[in-house]
């Protein structure tokens, strides 16, 4: 390293930054361990830690318990706060590749929360659909959706690893025409953290969505848990 009179930790910080910018260290990958960086740069652990912390403070690196330090991905701007669009279409429009992994699809009786949002009785069956959604192979959001059985009794005949829920509802004369969303910011529990590849208690955006079809009939209630570190949300307001 050659940087004149710059402190060693600043030289290391600059070199790591250069490697992040030229994709030597790619987003969502681990940089070398502290012991490896000590050998690479010929410095002490406190010097390495100071350089890493500077990049953490700038939002370029993130420390992960039991895993190491990763290069942070640029935030994905989610625009569904002012549009009704499928996740796949939204991700594709940003030049990213969407992928879905269905964790669960089953028919069950609803709890009180689901009954209230779908305006159904406790003995009215719903389909529960749990999906982990990705962008460029990175888990982005965990979504649990509830669809009234009486609205779409054939829902379990579709493979939602490959097809969109909204597109399926559209094609079967049950389009979601209006949605109401509520946002909270919560801490990730152990299961959510594991699925989204974040640490337990990391912040997540927690959206409740109720979608209605023709004649204001509730046709979907979903709970979406978005990673706080790689998602941002655009709000469009017109006077």
pLDDT under 50 segments (min length 5)?
A: none
The succession of helices and strands, N to C, reads HHHEEEHEHEEHEHEEE
Radius of gyration: 22 Å
- The helix content, as a percent range, equals 25-40%
Which fold name fills CATH's third level, the topology of the largest domain? Answer: Chorismate lyase
InterPro entries: Bact_HTH_transcr_reg, Chorismate_lyase_/UTRA_dom_sf, Tscrpt_reg_HTH_GntR, UTRA, WH-like_DNA-bd_sf, WH_DNA-bd_sf
Organism: Companilactobacillus heilongjiangensis
Protein name: Transcriptional regulator
Keywords: DNA-binding, Transcription, Transcription regulation
Task: Set down the secondary structure blueprint.
Elements: H1 8-21, H2 34-41, H3 45-57, E1 61-64, E2 68-71, E3 76-78, H4 87-92, E4 98-108, H5 112-118, E5 126-135, E6 138-148, H6 165-171, E7 178-187, H7 190-196, E8 203-212, E9 218-227, E10 231-233
Parallel strand pairs: 3-10
Antiparallel strand pairs: 1-2, 4-5, 5-6, 6-9, 7-8, 8-9
Explain the overall architecture.
The protein starts with 7 loop residues before the first helix and ends in a 6-residue tail after the last strand. Strands 4-5-6-9-8-7 form a 6-stranded antiparallel sheet. Strands 1-2 form a two-stranded antiparallel sheet. It is elongated and about 70 Å long. α2 (34-41) crosses α3. The protein folds into 2 domains: 8-71, Winged helix-like DNA-binding domain superfamily/Winged helix DNA-binding domain (Arc Repressor Mutant, subunit A, Orthogonal Bundle), CATH 1.10.10; 76-233, Chorismate lyase. The protein is built from 7 helices and 10 strands. The longest helix is centred in the N-terminal third of the chain and has 14 residues, at 8-21. It is an alpha+beta fold. Residues 6-74 form the HTH gntR-type domain. Pfam families: GntR (PF00392), UTRA (PF07702). Keywords: DNA-binding, Transcription, Transcription regulation. It comes from Companilactobacillus heilongjiangensis. One of its GO terms (biological process) is negative regulation of DNA-templated transcription.
């Amino acid at each position: 390293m050659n940087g004149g009179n710059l402190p060693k930790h600043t030289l290391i910080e600059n070199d790591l930054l250069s490697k992040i910018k030229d994709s030597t260290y790619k987003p969502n990958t681990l940089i070398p361990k502290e012991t490896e960086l000590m050998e690479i740069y010929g410095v002490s652990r406190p010097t390495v830690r100071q350089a890493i912390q500077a990049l953490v403070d700038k939002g370029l690196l993130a420390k992960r318990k039991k895993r190491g330090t990763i290069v942070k991905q640029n935030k994905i701007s989610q625009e569904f706060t002012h549009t009704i669009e499928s996740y796949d279409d939204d991700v594709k429009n940003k030049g990213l590749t969407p992928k879905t992994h269905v964790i669960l699809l089953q028919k069950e009786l609803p709890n009180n929360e689901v009954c209230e949002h779908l305006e159904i009785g406790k003995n009215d069956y719903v389909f529960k659909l749990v999906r982990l959604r990705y962008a460029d192979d990175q888990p982005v959001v965990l979504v649990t959706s509830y669809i009234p059985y009486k609205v779409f009794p054939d829902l379990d005949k579709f493979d939602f690893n490959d097809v969109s829920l909204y597109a399926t509802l559209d094609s079967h004369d049950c389009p979601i025409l209006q949605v109401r969303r509520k946002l909270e910011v919560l801490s990730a529990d152990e299961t959510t953290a594991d699925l989204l590849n974040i640490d337990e208690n990391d912040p997540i955006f927690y959206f409740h969505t109720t979608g209605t079809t023709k004649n204001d009939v509730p046709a979907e209630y979903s709970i979406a848990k978005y990673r706080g570190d790689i998602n941002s949300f655009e709000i469009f307001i017109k006077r």
